[in-house]
Design brief:
Elements: H1 2-14, H2 23-35, E1 39-43, E2 46-51, E3 57-64, H3 91-110, E4 118-124, H4 132-137, H5 140-143, E5 146-160, E6 164-166, E7 169-170, E8 174-183, E9 187-188, H6 198-216, E10 223-232, E11 238-239, E12 242-251, H7 257-275, E13 278-285, E14 291-292, H8 294-301, E15 309-311, E16 331-339, H9 361-374
Parallel strand pairs: 3-4, 3-5, 5-16, 6-15
Antiparallel strand pairs: 1-2, 2-4, 6-16, 7-14, 8-12, 8-13, 9-11, 10-12
Helix pairs in contact: 1-3, 3-9, 6-7
Length: 378
């Protein structure tokens, strides 16, 4: 097991591919399944491995397979060989774990173990910003199956190595993407009265958006407004015509979405009237929150040794695993701790120095295996 985890994760880590471009990764996964004579279906660069059981009642297990546009700074033998691309969110580990799970399942079936229920292993493309789960969740091969539960694991470097975090209800936040263009009137910096200063309006817009959280939302309800990009102009002595702003809003209570849309629209319209600019906005709710099933919470909790459990953790980030949980499907995502200060595994997800010990994946595999037993699959 340890050699498998190290070697497989190393191969994947050396060859990262970005969201919906995982052609070689998909080929690697499919060759692996072919060699084991495991049936699968293809949806773009996603791969769905199918294990038919006695009943046409399904359990799903998902791993995301894509990497990030980062230059790796770790000096390790399995360092990324692709300039500007890196597995900095642990998806190489998720994929490794699910491949080992596939191998173990096939060995069980070859040894005469009969699956009482059917299993789908989802090697999913495009989690990082592309919502790759949607394409699978909307496919006939997924929609036409009755799922008793869909499960996923995500590595987490804030948790001690081997700890497993579980949450009642909401695990991650809804995210809303904001694309904003402010159109003023460009002019010479020495003659500002001849123009309309889009940068000044942009600064007021950023400040006003933060007031939505501090003055319009119940303090007991968590909402996060982040402006991550503010681009305007090229030279010091020209007031530019346009400002482009990118941001996100994150929340758990989705009933607030329309209220927040109304508030940002009202702020934009007020600034338009006050300064004579034009503000164009795309307000785009994207990944829904991951809401863990209460029924499956009990199953997962009983699948983890008590001394490994960390309870009621929350993530303010977003996860497209939530798309599988639409239309009445029950699901559950848990977090696997990979932090080890002695080994130097201390850096956060999406860091160019993120790394972990792949042998830690054995704890995730054990949870997946125990879930099958608790749900009377084997």
């Amino acid at each position: 097991m340890e050699n498998f985890f190290y070697e497989t994760r190393s191969k994947l880590h050396k060859n990262p591919e970005l969201a919906l471009e995982e052609y070689e990764t998909a080929r690697y996964i499919r060759n692996f399944l072919d060699n084991l004579e495991i049936e699968y279906e293809e949806i773009g660069t996603s791969t769905l491995a199918l294990f038919k059981g006695k009943e046409d009642l399904w359990l799903g297990f998902r791993a995301d397979i894509d990497a990030l546009p980062l230059q790796e700074e770790n000096e390790v033998e399995y360092k990324s060989k692709v300039n500007g691309k890196m597995h900095a969110c642990g998806h190489d580990g998720h994929t490794t774990n699910l491949l080992y799970f596939a191998k173990w399942l096939k060995e069980q079936m070859d040894s005469g173990v009969e699956l009482k229920k059917s299993i789908m292993l989802i090697f999913q493309a495009g989690e990082e910003g592309k919502g790759g789960a949607r394409f699978i969740a909307q496919s006939d091969i997924f929609k036409n199956k009755k799922f008793e539960g869909i499960f996923a694991m995500h590595v987490n470097p804030t948790l001690e190595e081997g700890k497993i975090a579980i949450a009642h209800g909401a695990l991650s936040f809804q995210n809303i993407n904001l694309d904003i263009e402010i159109v003023g009137k460009g002019c010479h910096g020495a003659q500002p009265h001849q123009g309309i200063d889009s940068i000044l309006v942009g600064a007021k817009l950023v400040e006003a958006y933060q007031s939505i959280v501090s003055r319009n939302i119940d303090p007991l309800k968590t909402v996060i407004v982040t402006i991550g990009s503010f681009k305007a102009g090229e030279v010091r002595n020209v007031i530019p015509e346009k400002v482009n702003i990118l941001g996100t809003i994150r929340l758990i209570d989705t009933s607030l979405i329309e209220f927040i849309r109304e508030r940002v629209t009202s702020i934009n319209e007020g600034l338009e009237r006050a300064f004579g600019v034009k503000i164009n906005m795309n307000f785009m709710p994207f990944y829904p929150p991951v809401i863990n099933s209460e029924d499956l919470y009990k199953i997962v909790e009983s699948s983890i040794p008590e001394d490994q459990i960390v309870r009621d953790i929350r993530l303010t980030g977003s996860e497209d695993f939530s798309f599988y949980l639409q239309n009445g499907n029950k699901g559950f995502m848990f977090l696997l701790g990979v932090r080890n200060e002695e080994k130097g595994f201390i850096n956060p997800l999406h860091s160019p120095k993120f790394d972990f010990d792949p042998n830690t994946l054995r704890y995730g595999f054990e949870v997946f295996k125990n879930i099958l037993e608790k749900m009377n699959v084997i």
